[in-house]
Amino acid sequence: MERSGDNVWELVSDSREEPVLREDRIVVLLSAFMSTRTIFIGTPTELSEKIDPDKSEGITPKKISRLILQSVEALRKNGIAAVIRRSNGKRVIELRRADSVDLEGAGGIVPIDPVGALCGDLWAVSGCGE
Questions:
Q1: With b meaning 16 or more CB within 10 Å and e meaning fewer, what string describes 12-29?
Q2: pLDDT tens digit string along 105-130?
Q3: Are 71 and 23 in contact (CB under 8 A)?
Q4: How many C-beta atoms surround the C-beta of residue 63 within 10 A?
Q5: Which one of 6, 10, 58, 123 is separated from 80 by 20 to 30 angstroms, measured CA to CA?
Q6: Do residues 1 and 11 make contact, with C-beta atoms less than 8 angstroms apart?
Q7: From CA 71, how far away is CA 13, in angstroms rounded?
């Protein structure tokens, strides 16, 4: 929207017609969808039904793969890894929340005492703690 010379708001463009804004919208929708899960593996139809059940966003199964591929970097910055592949002749979309991938197999995290670690490194050199 933009103000005209008469100080009246006018519609300049519609977000449904702007491809850049639609791509950003897919990032928002997928981020919200993945906030409650760590992984999704399914067809474009299954994913479009989950993120746009009432079709108000206009994200069809045909568009969703293209939108995801165009937004891979933006999704990655939002902590979502996206892969589109074929399996048994079907297109499959795989989404993973980055924090779940990074923490798999990490085990317990043990805090480090920075002073103790420093003294341990310098023990032989300086006689720290004596």
A1: eeeeeeeeeebeebbbeb
A2: 444 545 555 555 555 555 455 555 55
A3: yes
A4: 16
A5: 58
A6: yes
A7: 21
- Extract the tokens encoding 114: 């920075």
22, 87, 116, 128 from 65: Cα distances, Å: 13, 15, 52, 60
Q: What's CA 69's distance to the chain center, in Å? A: 12
Q: What is the pLDDT of residues 8-26, one digit of tens each?
A: 887 766 555 554 445 588 9
pTM: 0.59
Q: Which tokens sit at 128?
A: 């720290």
Question: CA torsion sign, 96 to 27 to 19 to 55?
Answer: positive
The angle, 0 to 180 degrees and rounded to 10, between the axes of the packed helices 61-70 and 44-51 is 90
